[in-house]
Design a protein that fits this description.
Strand order of the largest sheet of chain A: 1-3-4-5-2
Oligomer: homotetramer
Strand content of chain A: 35-45%
Structural class of chain A: alpha+beta
Shape of chain A: elongated
Order of helices and strands of chain A: EHHEEEEH
Number of helices of chain A: 3
Largest interface: C-D, 21 and 21 residues
Largest sheet of chain A: 5 strands, antiparallel
Chain lengths: 135, 135, 135, 135
């Protein structure tokens, strides 16, 4: 199983008046993890969208918050594929600050074409996303 | 059971290059629903935070996406308390565009004091959030 | 001269750890003012983009901040066209909380086609944006 | 004159339905440049706020947009102090994609204390921000 780790700093813009990161921004961080996961397995998501017309449309997203993240913290997102078929993929995420788990999450996506209708993931991406071929 | 409905238009800033609303923004909309729910039951969240020092810290958040929302759509968020104790509250949300359900979600919150430690919800808020008193 | 006023509440998501609204969000508010200005003169910006393929691309934006806006404040944005030609339009904005001016701004936009090349504003929009016809 | 360069990738969340980066996000990038500029001269902005109670409150911000930035582009922000006194500082910014200037900006800030009243920049920061001492 491929696991990607990507690290960045918390932006001032991401905090709210509670003095910690606003909760919706963790989903932006999952996007960063997802994109870097794709890059690490050889898929540039930008190309997948532009050249192959395959969109990863979110159908479900969840986050559990354990400890707050603060401005200027270095956050590491660990991302992996939890499950995948030719129709959909599910990513899992863990977010760390100073090696302490601060949040975990998951997102489910359907593969859509440019017309927003479901498509099967092109074969060239199967192995990368861990899609098993049928016998 | 109290249900609040609040309506607003999708902002250009909330869209992404897929031409639809970016998925993290639905959690901002849940915040809008939550705040208006509180206002409708007589609680101004700003006062609860400033005067009573009670913070509603998110510990879990989830969203299911059914249909995309688009720029300039009028979105209605229906918000209600799904469960509540003196320690925590769980909100449920449904989001509609032209009376069609586009997404549903839920958020769980702990009540924290200004020092970020758990507190019991002050008694004056119990009835409003539907907290049952002990026998 | 047409002036539009639109009012909304500050979102929790718009604050930062300084306890006030993060500075970039004032430009989102200008967008809200601009869109409602357009609606008030009979132009739905969404249609202008989709049906006529005319984009309002920002080329310059400025904001002066006088007093901070805070969570749950009611903000009124006053928007008007400061100058316009068939190639470009400049909007001015004033933002108020409790009738006190908290910020002022302006944005300049070029009219672009779907290919991101400059276009002349279609004649049907001239009067609305105050574009003077040539003799 | 100290000039800081910091580089990051455009996030999907930062795009809008025009397929390019939403204009308000350039001001978030200026914040990233500003913070990294401070770090490069030995000031951790987080500490300046927390330990010395000095806030950099924006009073004016401007951006000129030359070419659109797109999802996944690598953006480099060049940041320097354009002018500074014991009361205020002005930063200048240039933003590049593939060595092409895509935008330039500036922000003016007053130094405020925790009570949001103007303060003089503590002497220990004078040299770093290029504040000239009086004879």
């Amino acid at each position: 199983m491929e696991i990607n780790e990507t690290t960045f700093r918390v932006r001032y813009a991401e905090t709210d008046q509670m003095g910690v990161v606003y909760y919706a921004n963790y989903f932006v961080w999952m996007e960063l993890g997802r994109v870097e996961y794709c890059r690490s397995i050889g898929v540039r998501y930008r190309d997948m969208e532009q050249q192959d017309g395959v969109l990863l449309a979110v159908i479900d997203a969840q986050c559990r918050y354990r400890r707050p993240a603060r401005y200027d913290d270095e956050v590491t997102v660990r991302t992996w594929v939890f499950a995948s078929t030719r129709k959909a993929v599910e990513f899992s995420y863990e977010m760390y600050v100073r090696e302490e788990l601060i949040a975990s999450g998951r997102t489910k996506h359907m593969f859509l074409g440019r017309d927003f209708r479901p498509v099967s993931l092109p074969v060239k991406y199967h192995a990368m996303f861990g899609v098993r071929e049928r016998a």
